[in-house]
């Protein structure tokens, strides 16, 4: 059995690790809460654009029809570690999309690293925003890059892969971004508004805005999901740290008791030897 001093040092190290784990969990939980507030605003914007699309479609315009062609997949991956198997699952989803022939646009350095390990280089990549307020600027960059590619390949189908922070165990979620399914926007029968644009041009602009808003939502969901996975992983780590600390405390008590017993026996033996002499 180890000496009490050695066990005490190990226990100090375990407590330090526990402090780090607690900080990581608290930070991840705070990021989740922050993301939820931003999601409300993003979804309000999404609903407003959807309403405008319904009105515009009632004017007799049409959106571009869906046509099978080359695919572009946006992957909202993991930026950091300490999040269980979350990063690996997002990398697997990206790899599967690439195997299906899609060009990849990937967010998240950890997912990018996993793809690099298998020799897969995305068509476009960026680091995930470290804080929720920085997600919209990232969404602008990603949307701009996407629309540049769509200008060169307007027949491309665009999909997005992200995770649901409320159901991490469900794995990566897939959604179609473009061409837009206009059946989702039933024509609004309200009085015709005053327009300064042709209906077709207005619809095209609204579709771009709607796709951007969905990208922003997917990024925010991915940001929240990674932090949810990290909070969950750190919760498991906290349980393990507490168990190890408890075991070490028990081991320390046993070792200390044995040490004291040994010292008493040695003192008694020494005293007996002195008496006999």
From TrEMBL:
It is found in: Membrane. Keywords: ATP synthesis, CF(1), Hydrogen ion transport, Ion transport, Membrane, Transport. InterPro entries: ATP_synth_F1_ATPase_gsu, ATP_synth_F1_gsu. The keyword Transport applies. It is a peripheral membrane protein. It comes from the Bacteria. GO terms for cellular component: proton-transporting ATP synthase complex. One of its GO terms (molecular function) is proton-transporting ATP synthase activity, rotational mechanism. It holds the Pfam family ATP-synt. The keyword Ion transport applies. Belongs to the ATPase gamma chain family. Produces ATP from ADP in the presence of a proton gradient across the membrane. The gamma chain is believed to be important in regulating ATPase activity and the flow of protons through the CF(0) complex. This is F0F1 ATP synthase subunit gamma.
């Amino acid at each position: 059995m180890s000496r009490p001093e050695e066990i005490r040092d190990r226990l100090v190290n375990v407590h330090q690790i526990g402090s780090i784990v607690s900080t990581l969990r608290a930070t991840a939980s705070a990021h989740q809460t922050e993301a939820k507030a931003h999601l409300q605003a993003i979804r309000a914007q999404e609903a407003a654009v959807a309403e405008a699309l319904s009105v515009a479609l009632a004017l007799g315009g049409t959106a571009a029809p869906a046509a099978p062609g080359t695919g572009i997949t946006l992957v909202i991956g993991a930026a950091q570690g300490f999040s269980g198997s979350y990063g690996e699952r997002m990398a697997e989803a990206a790899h599967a999309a690439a195997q299906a022939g899609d060009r990849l646009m990937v967010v998240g350095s950890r997912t990018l690293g996993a793809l690099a390990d298998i020799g897969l280089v995305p068509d476009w990549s960026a680091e995930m925003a470290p804080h929720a307020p920085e997600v919209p600027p990232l969404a602008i960059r990603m949307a701009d890059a996407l629309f540049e590619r769509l200008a060169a390949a307007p027949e491309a189908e665009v999909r997005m892969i992200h995770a649901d922070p409320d159901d991490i165990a469900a794995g990566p979620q897939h959604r179609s971004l473009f061409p837009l399914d206009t059946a989702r926007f039933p024509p609004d029968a309200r009085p015709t508004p005053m327009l300064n644009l042709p209906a077709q041009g207005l619809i095209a602009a609204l579709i771009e805005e709607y796709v951007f808003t969905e990208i922003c939502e997917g990024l925010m969901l991915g940001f929240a999901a990674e932090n949810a996975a990290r909070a969950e992983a750190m919760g498991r780590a906290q349980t393990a740290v507490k168990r190890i600390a408890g075991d070490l405390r028990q081991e320390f008590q046993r070792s200390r008791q044995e040490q004291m017993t040994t010292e008493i026996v040695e003192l008694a033996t020494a005293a007996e030897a002195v008496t006999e002499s």
